[in-house]
Amino acid sequence: MTDDALSVTFAALADPTRRAILARLAHGEASVTELAAPFTMSLPAVSKHLKVLERAGLITRGRSAQWRPCRLDAGPLADVADWVGRYQQFWDGSFDRLDDHLRQIQEGRTDDRPT
Amino acid sequence: MTDDALSVTFAALADPTRRAILARLAHGEASVTELAAPFTMSLPAVSKHLKVLERAGLITRGRSAQWRPCRLDAGPLADVADWVGRYQQFWDGSFDRLDDHLRQIQEGRTDDRPT
């Protein structure tokens, strides 16, 4: 049930190391060794994360066997933005309600205090 | 390594049933039975998905023991939108590059053809 593209993308993003790798690649392509440098992690462990990102289409890798630079591919992130954007009214709404609540407090209306 | 809030949110969203539940709740609060209706899934299976969503803060549940309506809580989705928004320049950029590429093809420039 979780092999649809969006689920694969969300699963790939559900890890802080993988998100840190994407953040690094936002500054430009990098080799596995360069990507591994900031992490206290073995190259095979980093490679495993890269495979997850590659499978999700979030990165692409160069073809040269010696130097296979990783590049960010933001296509799936655009799909995430599209999906989450449908809910924007709900968090905008939450802030509106918070605003209303704060305004009522400032105006001295205390009828919604817990009893 | 995956117990930070954003990772928990992404993991919760990495399932089409859970995303469908959120889409349903965008139309208003609903009981577990109402949420289970469109799925060929047992109530316990749906309850398990709801627990994942609740743990991620994506839904809240009423306190009455008999009728515990689920409600969408879009706060974590705002965090997702904030995170993914940082990459917007990259998919906008991708479309720009695609535009450039298509323009070059239309102009008869074929020097980037694979050899």
TrEMBL record, chains A, B:
It comes from the Bacteria. Residues 1-92 form the HTH arsR-type domain. This is Helix-turn-helix transcriptional regulator. Pfam families: HTH_20. It comes from Pseudonocardia xinjiangensis. PROSITE patterns: HTH_ARSR_2 (PS50987). InterPro entries: ArsR-like_HTH, HTH_ArsR_DNA-bd_dom, WH-like_DNA-bd_sf, WH_DNA-bd_sf. Gene3D superfamilies: Winged helix-like DNA-binding domain superfamily/Winged helix DNA-binding domain.
